[in-house]
Amino acid sequence: MSAKVTKKSRWLEREKVGVLEHAHLRHQRAPRKVGLVSLQSLPNELLTHILSFVPWRWLPNCALVCKAWKGVFSGKTFWHDKCHNCLRIRRFVDGFMAPYVPRDWKKFYFERPCTRNLIKNPSGKDGLSSGWIYPTRSDKWQVEMGDSSTATKPDRLLAVSDGSPHHFVPCEGSCLRYQVIDLLAEGFTPAILDGDQPDVVISEWYTSPPDFFTTFNFKVELLKQEESAAVDNVIESFRYRPMNGPNGTPNEWQEVMTRFYKYGPGLRFIRFSEQTTNSSTPSGTKIAGCVIKLEFRNRVCEWDV
Prior knowledge:
Blueprint: H1 2-27, H2 44-51, H3 59-62, H4 67-73, H5 76-85, H6 87-97, H7 105-111, E1 141-145, H8 155-160, E2 166-170, E3 173-182, H9 190-196, E4 199-207, E5 214-223, E6 234-240, E7 243-244, E8 254-260, E9 269-278, E10 286-295
Antiparallel strand pairs: 1-2, 3-9, 4-8, 4-10, 5-6, 5-7, 5-9
């Protein structure tokens, strides 16, 4: 009797499992049939929206596909969508620049004037001749690498030049150099500069050992015109003049920072110049990591695109 009960129990168990499997298979959805749609048949507005998600590095190849695609990439709507597809760019434009929006969205996308460092070659990674102007002789300056004679560079300093260990070293005598930043050429518009008046933030890193007698200073000028003798051409200026002698500061990297705000309309150029006067050769002064940025409403917004 017990053997019959056991067989019947096993049979019922198998039937139960079979019913459950059948119910599971019955409720499974049949695979959908997906049809392919040619992009060539899409309306131009929809094609523009879809292509705006293509990474910018692929755009040159995509432009070779056909004349229609090339026309999409040359249109204003495409670059407007391209900027607004990136959440960080959209937040920056809507939250920091409004009501002043870029007129040329393509230029704004690639130049990114509102987030990048406007100083070229800030630490000497690209050599002496890149970016800087030397009124006397460029051979009065050198580019060094590493921290053999200085304290280790802080991470914030290294980040200015993408981790580059380079720095500038002025030689004996008076050494002068400068850069002039054309804000309109960098992608800003008169409406943004005069209407929103973003803060101009400047920072510079330097070090001078106490056993060298060195004078180091830098000057920043906000200009209406690049070259003008007019008295009102300089809107505002700032000069930093530390003095390092035998009892000076220790051999540590120091950051100097200043900010211009509410300077009024008319800003079109920024001139940054620095000078050292040394009694030793090579100089103990080392300079790196100069940064000039324009910040909207005292905040910074950065994106990676």
